[in-house]
Specification:
The chain is an alpha+beta fold. Helices cover about 20% and strands about 30% of the residues. It is built from seven helices and 18 strands. Strands 1, 2, 3, 4, 5, 6, 7, 8 and 18 form a nine-stranded antiparallel beta sheet that branches. Bound molecules: pyridoxal-5'-phosphate and 2-OXO-4-methylpentanoic acid. 2-OXO-4-methylpentanoic acid binds near residues 60, 284 and 286.
Length: about 350
């Protein structure tokens, strides 16, 4: 088999229809076997809870081609566990971890020709999702569900990838204090469309959300978590019940501590004290590590390391994280799942 004739290095983070996707149905309290299909459309009841009451969720993870040609996933068990936590919050049945990983494996293998080759900078992005379906009208959990995984090759989420971009603090909240901020539900993203649009319109890559209770602490950077490196080299990331628990962020906490002997802290990050950081970044599956050039707040742009150059600590964290993801750097036990 040969690879798809794509300009891998020029890919953006945009939809591309690949050949196969996985689909499985939950009915009468159990999942069916699941199978690969070619149709990228779904036919569902008009009464589906996903359509009316937002009873749905999704995940995002990537497949990487190693130098030796094998393909691996980065911590897929963590995505499965996070989807299960989301399911608990919005009363959907769990997709068991083995089923979740098996679905990802099947989709990667079936779409082998779309998995970007090693060294191109592109990756295969996997999008698992779970929706409440069936004939419903009252506000209560659906009795039937669909779990699906599709994929596409992607390039950088923020333009330029590993080049600094600026963000602006939004007046909107992403999530309520005891709401669904820590769950990966679509409603959180619907609410972010307008703030994102406003930020882009003003010339920023995306917006920074502050905590919804006091509006004094950094929570999220668009669809990514925040981290800062203090002037004395501590890796700091916000702690809050309304932040999405980023797998990349928890991985970076371990990389900073165990690979570089850095001090790490998960704690409040006050927007009025961001000068404590020499460097800052956004991290996530799609964002990888995107250096934050500056943050615009109350009429002023606060620049961290530089608006054009990546800071040295951000650079070494990036190289190690990405090295682990592509199999060039030895991963901690259990972080890598070999697909093929
Ligand atoms: N925060 C939000 C709101 C996200 O959508 C994502 C993306 O998944 C992240 C953070 C980063 O999470 P992860 O590193 O698990 O991809
Ligand atoms: C991810 O990083 O996987 C995300 O979910 C971010 C996004 C594209 C919504």
């Amino acid at each position: 088999m040969t690879k798809a004739p794509l300009e891998w290095g020029k890919l953006a983070f945009s939809y591309m229809k690949t050949d196969y996707r996985y689909i499985s149905h939950w009915k009468n309290g159990a999942w069916d076997e699941g199978r690969l299909v070619t149709d990228n459309t779904l036919s569902i009841s008009e009464g589906s809870t996903a359509l009316h009451y937002g009873q749905q969720c999704f995940e995002g993870l990537k497949a990487y081609t190693r130098k030796d040609g094998h393909i691996q996933l980065f911590r897929p068990d963590r995505n499965a566990a996070r989807m299960q936590a989301t399911c608990d919050r919005i009363m959907m049945p769990h997709v068991p971890t083995e089923k979740f990983i098996d679905a990802c494996d099947q989709v990667v293998k079936a779409n082998w020709k779309y998995v970007p080759p090693y060294g191109t900078g592109a990756t295969l992005y996997l999008r698992p999702f779970l929706i409440g379906v069936g004939d419903n009208i009252g506000v209560s959990p659906a009795k039937e569900y669909i779990f699906s995984v599709f994929c596409m090759p992607v390039g950088p989420y923020f333009k330029g990838g590993m080049t600094p971009v600026n963000f602006m603090v939004s007046n909107y909240d992403r999530a309520a204090p005891n709401g669904t901020g820590a769950a990966k539900v679509g409603g959180n993203y619907a609410g972010s469309l307008l703030p994102h649009e406003e930020a882009v319109h003003k010339g920023f890559a995306d917006c920074i959300y502050l905590d919804p209770t006091t509006h004094t602490k950094i929570e999220e950077v668009g669809a990514a978590n925040f981290f800062g490196i203090t002037k004395d080299g501590t890796f700091v990331t916000p702690k809050s019940p309304s932040i999405l628990p980023s797998i990349t962020k928890y991985s970076l906490l371990e990389v900073a501590k165990n690979y570089f002997g850095m001090k790490t802290e998960e704690r409040d990050v006050y927007i009025d004290k961001i000068e404590e950081f020499a460097e800052a970044g956004a991290c996530g599956t799609a964002a990888v590590i995107t250096p934050i050039g500056g943050i615009y707040h109350k009429g002023k742009l606060h620049v961290f390391h530089s608006e054009t150059e990546v800071g040295p600590t951000t650079k070494k964290l990036y190289e190690t994280l990405v090295g682990i993801q592509y199999g060039d750097v030895k991963a901690p036990e259990g972080w890598i799942h070999l697909v093929d």
